[in-house]
Sequence to fold (267 residues):
Amino acid sequence: MRKFKHGKLSGGCADSCCLKLEGLSVSMEGDQILEDVSFHLHCGEIVALIGPNGAGKSTLFRSILGQTPYKGSITFSPAGGPAIRLADGAAAGGTRPLVGYVPQSPSFDRGDPVSVLDFFTAATSKWPVFLPIPREYRDRAAAILARVHGEDLLDRPMGALSGGQLQRVLLALALEPVPHILILDEPLSGVDIEGEHQLLEMLDELRTQYDLSIFLSTHDFATLGQFADKVILLNKRMLRAGPPDEVLSSPEFYDTFHLRMGRGGER
Ligand SMILES: Nc1ncnc2c1ncn2[C@@H]1O[C@H](COP(=O)(O)OP(=O)(O)OP(=O)(O)O)[C@@H](O)[C@H]1O
Fold:
């Protein structure tokens, strides 16, 4: 599946744009949710975040989005530009990087008559969708959907979309405007194998086309090696980070998911 390995990574952070998390900690209602999490994310890189239920994956995303207060630092350094430090979600000394976000799949009632065009219009304008939608809004929605090869979905009811089609519609919205960083919370859940393959191809195409950092969480470990440059294993703390094969064969991975090491493993 992988068609493209990003060339800029060879120089590390110095000559490529980079999101840096350093010593990130989050507490809520007296509970420590994240503790001392540090890693870098480069443009053009797809990084998968894995961990058991309740590991803090969505909380980590919300911290980057500025929706959850944290301790530590999050900085964004555009290639060749000054670094932007995000303190508790506020950009200090620069323009806030654009972060596109696809939340964990919302569900739509099967009989819900809201069309993809209605949904787009409501999300991107103040036009009352019970009135006929003007041509310019329709053309704009079609152009945005075309980025994910979804123009044909425009008049479909949201409730009739498959899991993969719904993810593509949400992805198209997250790409308007095209962000610096794209975050997807479990985009593969509820998506069949064919849809999953299309979505992963799409992400590979988008990061190449727009030089995006893509950061996604998943519980589907079987496909990680096909699309992720790096995997981060999280369970409150960052337990391991590296290429997919290295993380998936690590003792930390086996311990976290209560698996036994196979032959050749040291345990
Ligand atoms: N608003 C909140 N107030 C208090 N605790 C919270 C809040 N939001 C999340 N938590 C707790 O933080 C922990 C991490 O939750 P989070 O949703 O980030 O995990 P996750 O790794 O995304 O889980 P999953 O894989 O099940 O989606 C959980 O124990 C959860 O109960």
Notes: Confidence is low (pLDDT under 50) at residues 1-11, 89-93. The pocket of adenosine-5'-triphosphate is lined by residues 28-29, 33, 51, 53-59 (CB under 6 Å). The CA atoms of residues 6 and 44 lie 6 Å apart. The longest helix spans residues 193-210.
